[in-house]
Structures are given as structure tokens and as C-alpha cells.
Write a structure and sequence with these properties.
single chain; 209 residues; mainly alpha; 6 helices; elongated
């Protein structure tokens, strides 16, 4: 079976629309996050080659390089999320006829769900880091590309918010109260900071257009 990242755009969207449970929201968030940071990278690359901005080229190239790392991480998370969710589904299908089987099934559900949650936390973290990068390039980059990179920022904000929703949904299954409390605190912080970043990006772009 092909990896999701090896599908073309038509195959990927059609598979998403099908009765298959994967790719789900988590993989889609990683995908759009990769596209969001790509728009920021586009601004950086165009700015690096803008006539008269030769003295700034190194800075723009550094931003594009950082963006590439974040882009590749988000692309990797597309299949990671799908695999994590598939493992959750398989854990729910484990037999539960004996006490040992029931205990094993519960343990597997807890472990696979934590893995799925942590994959979405990685989506949040990476998308948030990419938002910071997009803010920087929107501020100092080519004004003609400001709206493009701002669109990237809005997309990344969606990735942060959506991953938070996924975590809030899945965390209900977790029995470890301490784990739940810590993870929700992480989600709250990312969501609050991402909202601030979104407002900053929009302020910057509206001053440029």
C-alpha cells in the first residue's frame, strides 16, 4: 500500500472523501500545515532573489532553510498520524473474552491512544514553530508576497487549533489523570500563543497591502 505522501493530490483528496477512516483530520492538518509553511518559504525565496536586496539574501535563505525543516517534519507527520490512528483501531479490535485479554486490551488502547495524542502534539508544535517563521518573513519579506505568507499563517493557525481539538477528543479515553492535565495545559498554551501570532501576522499584512 502506498504511503499517503506518495499519492497525488487527486488520489489523496479522493481517499480522504472515501469510507476509509484514514487519512483523518490529523493527517489533513499535517498536510495543510506543510502547505502553510511552504507559502512562507515562497516569500523567503522570492525575497532572497529580489533585485536590490542582495544584502538581505543570507537572512532570507536562512528562513527558507528553517522552513524546509518544518515542512519536511509536517510531511512526515501525515503518515505518522495515519499509522497512529490505525494502531488505535487495532487495539479496540483485540479480544476481550478473558480477564487477561481485557487487561491487555485496555493497556493497548491506553498506549496507542497516547501515541496518537503525542503525534497531534507534534503537529501543534511544528505548526506553531512555522507560524513564528511565517510572521518573521511576512514582516521583513517582499510586500508583494505578504498576503501569500499570511495565508500560510492562517492555515498553520488552523493546524494548531485542529490538532488541539483532536487531542481534547482523544484525551477522554486516557485514565492517567496527571498525563491528561499536563497535555491539556500544553494544548491551552499553544492555542493561546497561536491566536496571538495570528493577530500579529494579520496586523503586519494589513499594514503592507
Amino acid at each position: 500500500m502506498k504511503k499517503l505522501i506518495d499519492l497525488n493530490i487527486t488520489e489523496f483528496t479522493q481517499l480522504t472523501a472515501s469510507e476509509s477512516v484514514t487519512p483523518g483530520g490529523g493527517s489533513i492538518l499535517a498536510c495543510v500545515g506543510a502547505l502553510g509553511v511552504s507559502l512562507g518559504m515562497m516569500n523567503a525565496t522570492i525575497s532572497a532573489h529580489k533585485k536590490g536586496w542582495e544584502s538581505k539574501r543570507k537572512k532570507f535563505e536562512e528562513i527558507a532553510k528553517k522552513g524546509k525543516i518544518l515542512q519536511e517534519k509536517l510531511i512526515q507527520l501525515i503518515d505518522e498520524d495515519s499509522g497512529a490512528y490505525s494502531a488505535v483501531i487495532e487495539s479496540y479490535r483485540l479480544p476481550k473474552n478473558t480477564d487477561d485479554e481485557k487487561r491487555n486490551r485496555i493497556e493497548e488502547i491506553q498506549n496507542t491512544m497516547k501515541s496518537a495524542i503525542e503525534t497531534q502534539r507534534d503537529v501543534m508544535q511544528t505548526a506553531f514553530d512555522a507560524m513564528n517563521l511565517v510572521k518573521e518573513i511576512t514582516e521583513i519579506g517582499n510586500p508583494n508576497c505578504a498576503s501569500d505568507s499570511a495565508v500560510g499563517g492562517l492555515i498553520l493557525r488552523t493546524a494548531v487549533k485542529g490538532a488541539g481539538l483532536n487531542i481534547r477528543t482523544n484525551i477522554k479515553v486516557i485514565n492517567d489523570t496527571s498525563y491528561k492535565t499536563k497535555m491539556i495545559s500544553v494544548v491551552d498554551n499553544f492555542e493561546q500563543e497561536a491566536e496571538k501570532l495570528e493577530n500579529e501576522i494579520m496586523r503586519i499584512v494589513l499594514e503592507k497591502i
